[in-house]
Amino acid sequence: MSAELVAGVNKLLFWVGLPAAVFHTLVEAGGSGSGFGGLLIAMAGATLIVAALGWFAGPLMGIKSRSRGTFVQAAFRGNLSFIALPLLLTVPGVPLAKAMWAVAPMIILNNALTVVVLAASQTKTGGSAAATIAKQVFRNPIIIAAIGGIVFSIMGWGLPVAISTTLQALGRMSLPLALLCIGAALMTVPVSGNRAQAGMAAVHKVVLSPVMGYVLGRWLGLDNAAMLALLICLACPTAAISYTMAKQMGGDEALAATAVVYSAVASAISLAVVIAMFAV
Hints:
Blueprint: H1 3-29, H2 37-57, H3 65-76, H4 80-90, H5 96-120, H6 127-138, H7 141-155, H8 161-171, H9 174-188, H10 195-219, H11 224-235, H12 241-248, H13 253-278
């Protein structure tokens, strides 16, 4: 796959496939997304706990101040858009409406928390970068589609058959295109820097995150279907965009890139275990 083809497929998936799938799922689900609060609390709680542990454990592992924020974002920021969402749409037994209602706020939380930890580990405040990311969050087509789907769901509006069928067909391309894009990205991301620290970040992301989510989910009384959605989101690898964010905000590019690759390989095991345990 040429670089131009990969870029085009990424845009098609991000601007068309995933938003169509999210919007269609929420509209068709109607009011069945109610009761997603426990799922969102468990997901956000596990993310914040892992981020805090990574921040305080970083110096103990010899991570320098400049690399601290990079390590933390690699430890907590999952690839919700290109890995979790396509899996939620295709794995049997996932409560789609609840999952979609929970994922949209998590995308916002991940972006905001990334800016905070990267800025906190630099001498500069990172205010301009924070403003840029804030704009990106609220222009994110997946978040816009989720908000639109929630409004339609609350208002009880339906879709004409032709539009519903079209959106469903567009959404079905999400998983195969996402896998192609992730594979292409891994072929171009440079592996360098401190591999031991990158490995620890990957362990935080694909092992510690789902373990914390499992504990919180059971404590909150989530059923197996909600646990499946929760753990898919938490066991997915570090988002590839974390490498771009580290580069943009003066973080440790080598650590970010290597953590992305390591977590992607390790997530093949963590996601397989989650799906084997909870999928119908």
